[in-house]
Design brief:
The protein is mainly α. It is built from 8 helices and no strands. Helix 1 packs across helix 2, helix 2 runs antiparallel to helix 8 and helix 3 runs antiparallel to helix 4.
């Protein structure tokens, strides 16, 4: 793959109003009380599907900082085969995949599973989170934003 066409920071500079709107949309679900770890799994999965390296790395690093178990991060791409995910996480991941891959729409089974795990309000805000990450993915993939480097851990002084 070739180098970045522009960078994340360029988006903030070039279109600050669009940046602010997408950022605000992405924050609504957490403000409404949805679990931040669950939201990060959803955002990571959508970013994997959309092939946005910047967003995949961003959400892996953020997930680690907020305590998402490493095994879940490694297995989110194959969540259907991994028993580590709760029914609520499975419903959220299926919902995210259905909304990210819309050619077939959202099937009744996926809707029933999601609405069985989430209230009407929660499902609406979960949908806003999926919509937001899909918007971010479009920018990141289109402009090939460079993924962040993992921060270097500093060794604690042995004194």
């Amino acid at each position: 793959m070739s180098h970045a066409r522009s960078e994340y920071e360029d988006f903030k500079r070039i279109a600050p109003d669009a940046y602010d709107l997408v950022l605000a949309l992405g924050q609504l679900a957490a403000k409404a009380g949805l679990d931040k770890q669950l939201l990060e799994l959803v955002k990571l999965r959508a970013s994997q599907i959309n092939g946005c390296a910047f967003c995949v790395q961003h959400h892996v690093l953020l997930s680690e900082r907020i305590g998402v178990p490493v095994d879940k991060l490694h297995l989110v791409a194959v969540w259907r085969e991994a028993p580590i995910f709760s029914p609520r996480e499975r419903a959220a991941l299926a919902w995210a995949e259905a909304l990210t891959c819309l050619p077939d729409g959202v099937g009744d089974e996926v809707y029933a599973e999601a609405s069985g795990e989430f209230s009407e309000t929660e499902l609406t805000y979960l949908t806003s989170a999926v919509a937001s990450i899909n918007v971010w993915n479009r920018f990141g993939a289109a402009f090939r934003w460079t993924p962040a480097k993992r921060p270097v851990a500093t060794a604690a002084a042995a004194f």
